[in-house]
Amino acid sequence: MVIARKFLLAKHFNGPPNVDDFKIIEEDLPDIKDGEFLAEAVYLSVDPYMRAYSHRMTEGSPMVGSQVAKIIESKNEDFPVGKYIAANFDWQTHTISSTDGVGTPYLLPDLEELPLSYGLSVLGMPGNTAYFSFLDICKPKAGETVIISGAAGAVGIIVGQVAKMQSCRVIGITGSDDKGQYIVENFGFDGYVNYKRENLEEQLKQAAPEGIDCYYDNVAGEISTTVIKQMNTFGRICICGSISSYNTDINNPPKVSCVQLHMLRKQLLMQGFQSIPYRNRIFESINQHLEWIREGKLKYIETITEGFENMPKAFIEMLEGKNLGKAVVKV
């Protein structure tokens, strides 16, 4: 008998989440059946979307999430013991699944010398999101200026490097000078602006004197309005996230300045991104990123928290912007 530990949403968040909003329980798992396998979590992900998604959850439900797990028992020849998978298995230590069961699992390719946690970051959802959304929606051209909000986060640092590979000029928006300097020195960004300093509009004018062609938006709010005002004609905007509003009441979102006049005058295109339509193409992204990493063209960083019991702590700190790159929990 295997005992699984899992986190439940004990109560809906009232503003920023705190540790009392979560409850950890233990559950006895049954024996696996033909076609099933048992996986043990190795790394788990915490992501901004979990805060937004929590509005749809009922209290007492398992916290949604994804993980890299090791198959420790199997009655499914496609998922043999000892292999590692990536799957949407929630905040839990052990999961019984199958090829058509919970969590849409898939086998990770051989990562060789790379960390298994990359299956949740640059070779997982953030990497797939960055690759497909930026290239398919922003359609960058050589010589263009790209602005990325949330630039030091899990997706932003990948988008910045992919943009540099397209011969673009790349400016990141961060919440501290330390983060800004880090992405310039380590990931090849051409510059940064700190939205917590005074006069973001003037900072952007100095950083992008010829205007902005592509805006990759992870945060929304007044930051995005300020960026959109300075975009060039026929600019493209990819909406990947809305972090600035995640801790607010979903039925009473924050009010921001109107952007439609700027979009009308400059004939801008704005499109939101969801990863579901790209589910059948994820190995296109994974294999390309593997190639870039091994060629030294793509670098990555993760913020790893030790201990399954610290899932809430890692989640809260990620929402507070304390992470560089992907926030991951090691069981």
TrEMBL record:
Q: Where in the cell is it found?
A: Cytoplasm
User: What interactions and quaternary structure are annotated?
Assistant: Monomer or homodimer.
Q: Which family does it belong to?
A: Belongs to the NADP-dependent oxidoreductase L4BD family.
Q: What class of enzyme is it?
A: oxidoreductase
Main subcellular location of this protein, as a coarse class: cytoplasm
Provide one Gene Ontology biological process annotation: prostaglandin metabolic process
Sorted UniProt keywords: Acetylation, Cytoplasm, Fatty acid metabolism, Hydroxylation, Lipid metabolism, NADP, Oxidoreductase, Phosphoprotein, Prostaglandin metabolism
Q: What reaction(s) does this enzyme catalyze?
A: leukotriene B4 + NADP(+) = 12-oxo-leukotriene B4 + NADPH + H(+); octanal + NADP(+) = (2E)-octenal + NADPH + H(+); 13,14-dihydro-15-oxo-prostaglandin E1 + NADP(+) = 15-oxoprostaglandin E1 + NADPH + H(+); dodecanal + NADP(+) = (2E)-dodecenal + NADPH + H(+)
* UniProt name for this protein: Prostaglandin reductase 1
Q: What is its EC number?
A: 1.3.1.48, 1.3.1.74
Q: Which Pfam families match?
A: ADH_N_2 (PF16884), ADH_zinc_N (PF00107)
